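Renewal narrative, Specific Aim 1. Our central claim is that a sequence can be written position by position from structural information alone. The example that follows is taken directly from our test logs and has not been curated for this report. It begins with the structure tokens describing the chain, in the order in which they were read.
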């Protein structure tokens, strides 16, 4: 029998090398499996790693991923501008980065991931001025922390580094001077620096096809000091009354000012990943001008190809429009997903979609995602509870050979799952493979419930559970959403005044609904979860259950 890559790797790998492990325990997992940080991979030779095909925006076609170093992938992704909450549309990009990384890790690749934080920008300066903030760092560090909290809530594996733009000004200045040396940058009379687009062969042609006749400017705001309207800013000269002293730098060659929008990514990707990177990720709206300008800067300075594979995710739409702060139709993660079930549902909604297509954020889509998760969770909990009550049948190797579930249906589901991942991250197909296991488990429980003389295929159910957890290395949906700092503070306050937290009341309500439908296994698992949170629930005949804090 041909085994899927995940099984073959597990069978052949005798030891695991773990470096700088970032570990998350999978809740309720019988074997307490671990999710490893991107730098932790099985000791599998590069020649054994399966080929992964990705749609490369550069070639406008699907291509096999060919890392510069076999088995090792460098990944750079565009991060947030930290002046406000990131919105649901932004998080689609960050979940897409997470998907790329999880798939690579799943197949045994070693991934080095860098995600920048833009902490100097026109919007940041304007917001700090509007709010009368004395130190711009007070604004940017606040929203940086909130952004990282939201990533944690979405179960996103952290990048290896989140470099800040303000901490890499010398590298940016160095790149500007290198571009000048190569005849691609010039200084205007006010001390600003510009990229001479007409001097760079092929500018604006790698990811998009620019119409030069209709194009007037690539910069946010026209500037008569530029030699050509297409030239973009590398360094903005300081303007008294407009700029701030705490967001300005200078050197012996470069006058007082701050970097342009595009320069930081070129400088930081070069510092952390070298002149050429394997994958660059971002939203489709960043193709131009941001990514084309990154290409121009990086290749203009180094003379090397900047990136071999460009992966762009589609928009999140609300009311048939792209969600964005400029349109004022954006929803923050906390606003759109107030409950932990909502957060997990949004993750599943994104992770089960095709990343290149646009995604509609609407109540029907979220309800469908919540319903899907509820069904998946129910089957998973039912198997876990069944195996807990098992007297050893699931470990009985004598019955393994006759388990159709373990020998045929589970391997087929995993094989289809992995084929979907390798084909440009086809997550709708991967989700279908997950649900094929859910249906098989449901059918098995139903079979036995109809005939009490029948016995459950415990070996098969255990193989289904293991396969679901294997798939979850990519989906990342089996986890408890961590509380934010604000929620923790509220929980402490609720504990002081004796009130019951909203998430506990939500679980109590779900348990009551499970009892009404006679889903006793789900009701028991929900009671266990309530107990884990430090509360007891007592049923009252003819009335609502009583919830109390466990002393």
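The sequence written for that structure reads:
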């Amino acid at each position: 029998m041909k085994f899927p890559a995940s099984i073959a790797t597990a069978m052949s790998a005798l030891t695991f090398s773990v470096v700088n492990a970032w570990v998350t325990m999978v809740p309720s997992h019988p074997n307490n499996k671990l999710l490893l940080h991107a730098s932790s991979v099985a000791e599998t030779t590069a020649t054994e790693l399966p080929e992964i095909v990705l749609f490369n925006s550069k070639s406008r076609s699907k291509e096999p991923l060919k890392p510069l170093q076999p088995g090792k992938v460098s990944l750079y992704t565009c991060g947030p501008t930290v002046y406000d909450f990131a919105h649901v549309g932004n998080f689609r990009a960050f979940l897409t980065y997470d998907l790329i990384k999880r798939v690579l890790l799943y197949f045994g690749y070693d991934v080095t991931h860098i995600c920048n934080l833009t902490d100097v920008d026109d919007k940041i300066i304007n917001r700090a001025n509007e709010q009368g903030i004395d130190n711009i760092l007070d604004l940017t560090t606040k929203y940086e922390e909130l952004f990282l909290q939201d990533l944690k809530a979405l179960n996103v594996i952290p990048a290896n580094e989140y470099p800040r733009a303000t901490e890499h000004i010398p590298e940016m200045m160095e790149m500007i001077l290198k571009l000048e040396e190569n005849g691609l940058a010039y200084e205007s009379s006010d001390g600003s620096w510009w990229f001479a687009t007409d001097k760079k062969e092929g500018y604006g042609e790698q990811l998009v096809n620019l119409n030069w006749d209709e194009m007037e400017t690539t910069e946010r705001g026209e500037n008569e000091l530029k030699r050509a309207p297409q030239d973009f800013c590398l360094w903005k000269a300081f303007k008294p009354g407009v700029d701030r002293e705490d967001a300005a730098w200078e050197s012996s060659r470069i006058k007082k000012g701050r970097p342009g929008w595009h320069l930081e990514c070129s400088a930081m990707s070069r510092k952390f990943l070298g002149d050429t990177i394997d994958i660059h990720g971002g939203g489709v709206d960043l193709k131009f001008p941001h990514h084309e300008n990154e290409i121009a800067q990086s290749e203009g300075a180094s003379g090397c190809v900047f990136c071999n594979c460009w992966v762009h995710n589609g928009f999140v739409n609300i009311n048939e429009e792209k969600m964005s702060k400029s349109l004022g139709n954006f929803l923050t993660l906390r606003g759109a997903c107030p409950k932990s079930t909502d957060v997990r549902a949004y993750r599943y909604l994104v992770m089960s979609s095709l990343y290149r297509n646009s995604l509609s954020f609407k109540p029907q889509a979220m309800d469908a995602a919540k319903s899907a998760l509820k069904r998946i969770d129910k089957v998973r909990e039912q198997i876990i509870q069944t195996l807990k009550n098992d007297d050893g049948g699931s470990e009985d190797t004598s019955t393994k050979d006759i388990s159709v579930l373990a020998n045929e249906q589970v391997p087929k589901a995993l094989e289809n799952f992995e084929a979907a991942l390798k084909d440009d991250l086809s997550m709708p197909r991967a989700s279908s493979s997950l649900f094929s296991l859910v249906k098989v488990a449901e059918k098995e429980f139903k079979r036995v419930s109809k005939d009490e003389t029948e016995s459950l295929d415990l070996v098969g159910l255990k193989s289904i559970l293991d396969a679901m957890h294997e798939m979850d290395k990519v989906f990342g949906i089996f986890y408890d959403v961590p509380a934010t700092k604000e929620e923790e503070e509220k929980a402490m306050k609720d504990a002081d005044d004796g009130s019951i937290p909203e998430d506990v009341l939500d679980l109590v309500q779900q348990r009551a609904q499970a009892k009404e439908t006679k889903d006793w296994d789900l009701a028991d698992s929900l009671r266990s979860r309530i107990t884990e949170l430090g509360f007891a629930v007592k049923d009252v005949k003819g009335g609502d259950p009583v919830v109390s804090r466990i002393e």
